[in-house]
């Protein structure tokens, strides 16, 4: 392996990192904006629930690369799409990738948030009602903060999966991290240098995401950590238990 090749073309990989982070971050933001109202609608039995379930089923049941191909190559086959005001965007690979990634992330995030909302303890909601809060206030001040805290571990995994799934962008001419690696290998007729460099960059970004989410989880989920007993006669769950010696 010639390690000087990636160093010589560090600017190409830096641009690839920026493109990957840009697509991943924007897709996650748009996906979250889709997922939050969708999850609430599913939990509350909205009239839109069948449509939302169909959307989630389709985008969770098909590979991301197929979705990207259908949007990038498929939409241009329809004349009414080419004549619409959206065609200047839909003919660009970057916008097609962003749309596909956002819809895919939104489908997975919908299920993550739906599960977190559905498993919110009823006592928390009843406590809000006992304080005289209205239903919108309970949703905003009690339900969503509680559900989002408990969804953190699963959503952290979704961010990592979305980062790894973003490699699909390279197959529709976008120069992301993997695209930079493929360009390097093709330019110098080498087999490993570009791909190994891309793998190391993805690993570094993944480890950074995992570290950040560990810190966030440690802060927002610390109330779920069970502290060991510090006083004699107090069990590990905080419930009093008689000391056998004291009982005698």
TrEMBL record:
Pfam families (UniProt xref): BPD_transp_1
Main subcellular localisation: membrane
InterPro entries in the cross-refs: AA_ABC_transptr_permease_3TM, ArtM/GltK/GlnP/TcyL/YhdX-like, MetI-like, MetI-like_sf
Localization per Swiss-Prot or TrEMBL: Cell inner membrane; Cell membrane
Its membrane topology: Multi-pass membrane protein
UniProt keyword RNA-binding present: no
The entry's keywords: Cell inner membrane, Cell membrane, Membrane, Transmembrane, Transmembrane helix, Transport
Membrane-spanning intervals of the chain: 20-43, 55-72, 92-113, 159-178, 190-213
All copies of domain ABC transmembrane type-1, residue ranges: 17-213
Family: Belongs to the binding-protein-dependent transport system permease family. HisMQ subfamily.
Name of the protein: ABC transporter permease
Organism whose genome encodes this protein: Paralimibaculum aggregatum
